[in-house]
Amino acid sequence: MRRLITLAVTLGLLAAIIVGARWLWIATHVAAGYAAKVTCSLALNSGQDAAQVYRDYVSREIAPLGPVLHVAVSDQDTEASALGLLRVRAVYRRGLGCTLLPDGSEDGMRLPHGVDLPRRALDATVPWPDGGAGPAATAPPEVAAAIERAFREPEPPDPQRLRQTKAVVVVQDGRLIAERYAPGYGPDKPMLSWSMAKSVTAAMVGIAVADGRLALRESVPVPEWSAPSDPRHAITLDQLLRMSSGLAFDEHQGAINDVSRMLFTKNDMGAFAASTPLEAPPDTKWSYSSGTANVIARLLRDSFGGDLTAFVRYANERLFDPVGMTSAFFEPDASGTPIGSSFVFMTARDWARFGELHRGDGMWNGQRILPDGWVRYVTTPTPAAPEGRYGALWWLNAGAPNDRAQRMWPGLPTDAYAARGHSGQYVVVVPSAKLVVVRLGLSIPDDGSDGTPELVADLIRALR
Description:
Blueprint: H1 2-45, H2 50-61, E1 69-73, E2 77-82, E3 86-93, E4 97-101, H3 141-151, E5 165-172, E6 175-181, E7 191-192, H4 197-210, H5 237-241, H6 258-265, H7 269-274, H8 290-302, H9 308-320, E8 329-330, E9 344-346, H10 348-359, E10 363-364, E11 367-368, H11 374-378, E12 395-396, E13 417-421, E14 425-430, E15 435-441, H12 452-463
Antiparallel strand pairs: 1-2, 2-3, 3-4, 5-6, 5-15, 7-9, 8-9, 10-11, 12-13, 13-14, 14-15
C-alpha cells in the first residue's frame, strides 16, 4: 500500500510538473509575442519611444514575465527573446504596420514588402472633418475642465493603477470643438484600437454585404465548417457579428487563454478561431469573442480570393478615404488576414470621423458610405446579450428590456453606443447630444477605471 501511495504521489507530482512546464512555456511564448507585436506597433506605427512604451505599458501588461524577456527594436522590426530558448519577431511593412511572426520566420508571410497604395491627402487649412485643421476656437472652460480631469491620474498615486490618457477629441454637431494629447502624441499619430477594430470590421462587413460579397442571414463559407454534418455549418454572419454563434472561445483574462494564444502565438488567427467547437446552439448564448471577429475578417479577405492587397484597396476606397480617415489601416497576421478583432490604427481625429460617420447614419457629405439601415442594425441590441449591452460589434447602453436603469453606463443616455477596446480605447457616440467623444490611452489595469464614461457625462453637462 505504501508503494502504491508513493507511486501515486510521484505520478501526481510528475503530472503537475508537466502541466506547469507547459503552462509556463505557453505563457512565455504569449508574453514574447505580446512584447514584440505591441512594442513594434506603438513604436513604428505611432512613433513612440520603444523603451518608454515597454517600461510604462508592455512590461506591466505581461508581468511577471517581463524580466525574462529581452526586446530589441530597429526601424524595421522588433524581436523578443526569452532566456535564449524562444525568439519572436514582429516586422514593420509599409501600409500594413507590424505583423507578428511567432516562429521568427518570414517564410509564408503574405506581402513581405507591404503595400504602397495612394491615399487621399487632406488640406491642412480646411477645418475638420473635411480638412486637416484643428478646432476653430478655444474649448469652452467647462469642456476644457472635463478633459483636464480625464488626463489627471487618480489620487493617491498608485503605480499599479494608471490612466495614461493619450488623446481626447470632442466633436459636437459635426464640429471639432476640443482636443488634447499627451506628450509624444498629437493629431498626426496613428493610435492603437485594440477591440475598437471590431467596430471598423463591422463597417467593412456592411459595405461588403451591400455589394453582394457577403450575405448577412446565410450560413458563412468557413472551410472548417463546410461539411453539412458539422454543427457549425449553419452559423450565419449575423450570429457571428452579434457574438451569439455559440462557438467556444475563452476571452477571460489570463496568460494562456484563447485570445492571448490567438493574437500572440498564431500565424493564422482566423483559422485558429474557426477551429473552436460549438458549445451552445446559435442565438441561445451571448459570449464576447475576439476569435469571432477574426473569423469575420478572414471571410472579408476571402471575398477577394484571399488577396490582401485587394482588401486593403477596397477598405481605402470604400470607407477610409471617402470619410477622410486617411491615416487608417488594418494590421494583418502572417497569413494575410486583417486582424479585425484588435489591430486597426488611425489618428484620434480619424477615430472621431469614424464615430461621426455613424452618428450621421452612414452618410458623409451627402454620399452614402454605409448601407441604409446599417447603423440601426449594428446598434440594435442582440437578444441574448445581457442588459442590451451589445449590438453587432458595437457596445450599447440600451439597458435591460424591462429596466433601462440596468445599463452598462448608468450616467449616460440609453442611446449612447461605443467602439471600445482594451486599455481604455473608446469612440463614444451619443446621438441625443449630437456628440462624439474619442478617448485613447494605455490604461492599467483594464478594469473600466479609465474614467471615460465620466468624461462623456461631464461633456454632456458642459455642452447642454
